Automatic annotation (TrEMBL):
Domain of life: Bacteria
The keyword Metal-binding appears for this protein: yes
Keywords: Lyase, Metal-binding
Taxonomic source organism: Microbacterium aurantiacum
A Pfam family per the record: CbiX
Protein's recorded name: Sirohydrochlorin chelatase
InterPro entries the record matches: CbiX-like (IPR002762), Sirohydro_Cobaltochel/CbiX (IPR050963)
GO-annotated molecular function: lyase activity; metal ion binding
Length: 236
């Protein structure tokens, strides 16, 4: 039986954010036409991920793909708790980042701002108090730095770490070029607004509407499905 893909995002009160996530999920459905795809959320919106998992496992195995860019509380607690209630029937894929596709999208968005030799780049993330999230964001910053061939600083909108606006201001005291904020958020909403207000000379768009993000969701699902099937075969 084909496992259900539950695309689990944070949830937002932003209509533009909801539309962006909905379009991302629609693209995933196009890429995986034979896979049942349902939406779930960890906050703000309904249905809650545990409720969707509980309902879907009645029809067969379930794979939750976090529409989240980093590991953290929502992956380690909310999503993990939802799948833990159904051992062997439900599994969770990793968060979307770090991943080469995410880095490629970020690099293309930054390049599209007309990045100059003297310009500085800040990876502007939502932030978290979870150390795992900081590790993932730092890894993405290193990957983006390698692609762009220049240092990439990290700034966060919330949680642990230096605030985006402070990073932008600090860079301006040290150099004359522009500051480009690479928006490391998935969809429009509160965190995207914080990034936009941080004072950078250019700010890239959230990532969800790039078609490669749907490819990444499909990849996370297919990898988890292979692992799920391998585990089932090993138990026979």
């Amino acid at each position: 039986m084909t496992p259900t893909l539950i695309a689990c995002s944070h949830g937002t009160s932003s209509e533009a954010g909801r539309a962006a996530i909905s379009r991302l999920v629609t693209r995933v459905r196009v890429l995986l036409p034979d896979v049942p795809v349902e939406e779930a959320f960890v906050d703000v919106q309904q249905p809650e991920v545990g409720e969707v998992v509980d309902r879907a496992v009645d029809r067969g195995p379930v794979i939750v793909v976090p529409l989240l860019l980093s590991a953290g509380f929502h992956t380690r607690v909310d999503i993990a708790r939802a799948v833990a209630r159904h051992p062997g029937a439900a599994v969770a894929a990793p968060a979307l980042g770090p991943h080469p596709l995410v880095t490629a999208v970020l690099a293309d968005r930054v390049a599209a701002t007309g990045l100059g030799a003297d310009d500085a780049v800040v990876l502007a993330a939502a932030g978290s108090t979870d150390p795992a999230a900081a590790v993932d964001v730092a890894a993405t910053a290193r990957d983006l730095s390698a692609v762009l061939g220049r240092p990439v600083r990290v700034g966060v909108a919330a949680g642990t770490g230096e605030r985006i606006s402070a990073v932008v201001s600090g860079i301006r005291l040290q150099r004359s070029g522009r500051v480009v904020a690479a928006s490391y958020v998935l969809a429009p909403g509160f965190f995207a607004d914080v990034v936009a207000r941080a004072g950078a000379d250019a700010t890239t768009d959230p990532l969800a509407l790039d078609p490669r993000m749907a490819q990444l969701v499909a990849e996370r699902y297919l990898d988890a499905r292979r692992a799920l099937h391998s585990g089932s075969a090993a138990q026979r």
